[in-house]
């Protein structure tokens, strides 16, 4: 099978689709039936039951997060192996939802559960708990994984056009970033791929990964996810591929609005990058006599502070779903779907449990150190924006820097 060199990898009969919409399903230019949509007319059967099961699983994750936090604080897991502390909540949530779905179809009474404690069990223990074979658990894991992925349209929504409260309520950020609607960056997830493809999936840090394009709001919710690109692909190349493909349903910016991006991307209309060659990362401004000395340094500091929202989102996602920290032995399509489903559940918890302990712990930190800062020091020179787009972005960045510097020098008694 031939593979499109300009698109994400796929193996065998696996389809390639946008992370935020199942409507785009193409491989090598050929249309395919959307992933998870069975042939024939049986699609509606059990759909309500599946939806109920998914909601139950999501609520279980939110509840389990609280119990997990309490257990850690009480040190009740101190004697457990490290591997047991790596909670593959995605597997367990899908298995639990699969069981509830199976139960809803067969009308069997539910088995007793141990709530949060059960989220530290593995497939073998789940078999005993639910009294079903490993094959059954695995099958429903896949079914529910696809069902959760299908909810991406509902839970991965474009950012509001209004100024976010995180900007509106900050003297440092408003009114300068009032038209910023979100942040874009790449996230590298360890990947398991055949030997023949490993050279393309080996990233600049030397490990095999899939490069996931992500966009998030300042409320730490994902609005777009596009997994599956090989780890060697530059962030700017992935973004350009998405922008050039209308089937990906990328949430384009309304006129005058923009996303923040790092120096791995081109500074162009709709995507504002920091000034290159100027201090940028927050740690570079810490300590005595390290205040910004120019308008460009001040802009970069504020840009870095605001863009850190996506690092906090990545950190929360990986801490909640440790399965994203390892190269699982699933097929590559499943590896991609796990990323999408994790982001759906991430957004669900954010919406339904505002006091979630993981979000609270991340928000309490001023800044989360970047994991991908050295993947793309410079954008891919083959993915340049048009000169007009770059001139518009350059002018906007210059006016923002001048305005905030003027206020900083003349009216601010603190920075």
From TrEMBL:
Q: Where is the DDE Tnp4 domain?
A: 184-347
InterPro entries given for it?
Answer: DUF8040, HARBI1-like, HARBI1_dom
The DUF8040 domain is annotated at: 118-148
Q: Which GO terms describe its cellular component?
A: nucleus
Cofactor requirements of the protein = a divalent metal cation
Region (Disordered), start-end ranges: 1-49
Care to name a GO molecular-function term for this sequence?
nuclease activity
Cell location: Nucleus
Task: Give UniProt keywords alphabetically.
Answer: Hydrolase, Metal-binding, Nuclease, Nucleus
By sequence similarity, the record places it as follows: Belongs to the HARBI1 family.
Checking PANTHER family in the record gives: OS08G0106900 PROTEIN (PTHR22930:SF259), PTHR22930
Q: What is this protein called?
A: DDE Tnp4 domain-containing protein
Organism, by scientific name, is Linum tenue
